[in-house]
Amino acid sequence: MTAAGDTSRETVNGHVRHWWKEAVFYQVWPRSFQDSNGDGIGDIPGVIARLDHIADLGVDAIWLSPHYDSPNVDNGYDVRDYRAVGAEFGTMADFDALLAAVKARGMRLIVDMVVNHSSDEHAWFVESRASKESGRRDWYVWHPGRDGGAAPPNDWRSFFGGSAWARDDATGEWYMHLFHEKQPDLNWESEPARAAIFDAMRFWLDKGVDGFRLDVIAFVSKDPAFPDYPPRHRDAPEYYHADGPRLFEHLCDMRREVYRGADKVALGEAFGVPLPRAARLVAEGSGPLDMLIHFDAVRIDRAGMWRWKPVPLPVFKRVFTDMERLLGRTAWRAVSLSNHDNPRLVSHFGDDGPRWRVRSACLLATLTLTLKGTPIVYQGDEIGMTNYPFATIEDYDDVEGKGAWSDWVETGKVGAQEFLENLWRTSRDHARTAMQWDDGPNAGFTTGTPWFHVHPDHGTVNAAAARADDASVYHAYRRLIALRKARPELVYGDFRDHLPDDPRLFVYERRIGADACLVALNMSGEAASFATPEGFAGAALVLVDGVSPQKTEPLAGSVDLEPWDSRIWRLPGS
Ligand code: TEU
Ligand code: CA
Description:
- By secondary structure, this protein is an alpha/beta fold.
- It is 28% helix and 16% strand.
- It is built from 17 helices and 22 strands.
- It has an eight-stranded parallel sheet with strand order 13-12-11-7-4-3-15-14. It has a five-stranded antiparallel sheet with strand order 16-17-18-22-20. It has a three-stranded antiparallel sheet with strand order 8-10-9, with no helix packed on it.
């Protein structure tokens, strides 16, 4: 527990100050960021070569998605060796050089820890599956089957399709895998297994990384009775799996054993943790984690894993009011509206057509950087990259989409057309196309054959063009990050929604006492207006669509916003 026992820390607006609360994070998904050796796969030297693109935005920390040795059934989230760099990404010397280069630019680096499960090719699992007598048998979750061993032990389902259990021929027992069958779940009930996991984590902290993003960390505690799903969880099993009996205890163990009091960050991925349950996990001073990546907003338009549903704006906005109410000043949160598991930010919450792409991406930059919580910017969103025009199931790569295809289409539960229309809106693959650096071949990502698609729009949507254009999405991010650093209320200030029921506008304030910013976003393709909220008359306009305004008349009367317009005003304060 980071701040436990440390009463010397300064507070701002009731929040204990920490570097990770004030930081802006940038997520690198290395496979698609930059290839350096022409094999078509992004790698660590490629990340090093592009660090200035990240540093120039003004971000403080990088979250690097898995860079470990892996057979890559889930693009690195199936780790074969926690202490080795994947050969396609480079060497340990490359990693050390990356860490040094990040620090040399005054930034920090956190790595992704995938310790709910490993790869089935991890030496621990190879040993575990060898026989029932193996010394590491109980490092994974083994169970005899039902019906004389022929059927899985219970009805748990894999998020990647089918049962969460696979029968192993060597012993006839079943092992559990909440994700792919090549991703067996580690058994956190085994103390030696936990110790080995903690040891692997310490290896990276000892190298000098500044913390971890903890993959599906809420799933690590399993009910030892292995019951079938309670009926209320059958349609959303993530809420069941994230509610294990020893979750809090295991995470406190991890915090103590791995972090040993260092102010390094524990950013937990909280798939399946509803907001009311999140507070305890991240409570200041007593929670084992520092902040969570919440799914409430980013998955709000899902009806199940792959099905999309439209959501009215007031429902989306309510998430942030709920966060303020439930997490308040005694806990912290991350702002995560896009990552490698979700559609592109501008395609998801904005309008990625030619008319409004730039403006709505600037609005989403404004939202990301002015909501309460630590913002995480996903690679490519800072230049307004868009969803890829996938057409057939073969165009996709992701195990999740393919698993859903076999569960739903191949069984005849849903037609291919209906499935594909929904998958296009929800697929994780949109975020995994190559980063678009320039308008040249393969968008400057590789000189070889890229492992995955390069978006055809890279002639206009690319980093070189964005950096050269002062009105681009990239420069909006840069100015918003600078504004956030200059205004403590944008970090620690209370959040209050002024128009919770408005179907088009999101108008909120961030406030510490008399210091306040008012943010107004028109999240629609139609003009809209609102009346100056009480107390904000005379506030000064600081940014319009991420650009410093030409004229700065004080705020008064009725305010008209064009489609996808975003504005920030500031009260001078006391
Ligand atoms: O994802 C967690 C997760 O459960 C979802 O984001 C994921 O898309 C899921 O299948 C529900 O739709 C993390 C990683 O971010 C993701 O890339 C991995 O595939 C997954 O864990 C397993 O490690
Ligand atoms: Ca490469």
